[in-house]
Amino acid sequence: MAPKKAVAKPAATAKKAAPKVAPKKGTKAKKDAKGKKAAAAPAAPAKSAPPLFDKRPKNWGIGQDLPPKRDLTRYVKWPLYIRRQRQKRCLQKRLRVPPAINQFNNPVDRHTKKELMKFALKYKPESKMEKRARLRKEAEAKVKDAKAPAAPKRAELKCGIQRVTRLIEQKRAKLVMIAHDVDPIEVVLFLPALCKKMEVPYCIIKGKANLGRLVGLKTASCAAFLDIASSDKPSFDKLLDAVKLSYNDRYEEINRKWGGLSFSRKSKQRQAVKAKAMAKP
Asked: DSSP letter string over 205-240?
């Protein structure tokens, strides 16, 4: 028999990798110490002083902190009469206002008005209580003596458009005061022309409430001086001179001056942009 051939044995398999063993304590630290410098330990934070005021954040949720106050004018739905007042005032600025109406936008200056009001308070009409007391004294005097003369009534201001118009036509009014904000303006529109024709001094006072205060009412469209005490004539003459200089002597000039045509800020900006565009070559 033939001898058996030797069979080549396969190459020896690679040795199995030895299992990883946990490093001994202190081994890694030693390696780090040799290779790298150990990282520096973080510094402890410095202690800050306590704040003077504690933080109290606001909570704007429903039912929580109140929100800060804001101007809510543009969100308000104003009553109709206020809207009408503002629309009227805006229209009078934008539209061209004729001189007869525009003259009511030029009331007397502050100093003359102050002196006029102070003087007119002396001639304020008597109230109901004062009138009752005066009539009672007259009645008591009549009971004692039937021939007792009635006490003379003191001079006082006259108000009301019909009464003042009648006094101007009769040339009995010494000075006429007209409110600048009467509504409708047609009620007093003719008074300046009538005063000029009858040569009665007149002036325009700012506020019908101011005139009403002089005669014991809420408002008054006009008021007139009728009789002046002899002791008050020097001061009254000074007021007349100032009023005539401002109104009666300047009547023709005032009646040539138109008003209105003052544009809003947006309109002026728009016009400026148009003018700038047209000026470019």
From this structure: ES-HHHHHHHHTSS--SEEEE----GGGHHHHHHHH
